[in-house]
Amino acid sequence: MERCDWPSNNVLMIQYHDDEWGTPLHDDAKLFEYLVLDAFQAGLSWQTILNKRENFRQAFDGFDAQKIARYDDDKIEELMNDAGIIRNRLKIKATIGNAIAFIRIQKEFGSFDKFIWQFTDYQTIDNTLSSLKAMPVKSDESDAMSKALIARGFKFVGSTICYAFMQATGMMNDHLIKCFRHKEVSKK
Fold it and tell me: What is the 8-class DSSP label of residue 126?
């Protein structure tokens, strides 16, 4: 069974690749989780984030946007002292602000899903990549998503982060054509 090259031999990365990455997501709670994790990934490897994912889940109340939106200075200090996560004050504060903005979008559009998928015209863009070298790090769609999210008050949502989010949530199918997941994702 052939897969994309990027998971290498790392068991956690292989599991993430095989079970999650690129699968179209329409669940607001999971979409918010990916927003949080992708923001924390800025400047770091995805493997680092995956290794700490369960710690993040525990520290950030299961990625519950309603709870995160109410975090105060005491909670920020608690998170800054949590060695199980990435202790970056700017990213922690951004997560709180992003939760607030996320909730506003849900109220305006009925769901975050309805808002975020508009950038790919509510369907997966099926790229046919033959190598990792051909994989883009951003696109016109991620540029538009980034601009819209920033205008709504989100932080740590540059075009490259948005593109990674689009790949993870199945808005972009960037599984290599040799990968068994390419066809699986294309069918969804």
Answer: E
Q: Is the pTM of the predicted complex or chain greater than 0.85?
A: yes
Could you state, in order of their start, the residue ranges of all structural domains in the chain? 11-187
Tens digits of pLDDT across the chain (188 residues): 899 999 999 999 999 999 999 999 999 999 999 999 999 999 899 999 999 999 999 999 999 999 999 999 999 999 999 999 999 999 999 999 999 999 999 999 999 999 999 999 999 999 999 999 999 999 999 999 999 999 999 999 999 999 999 999 999 999 999 999 999 988 66
CATH says 11-187 is which class? mainly alpha
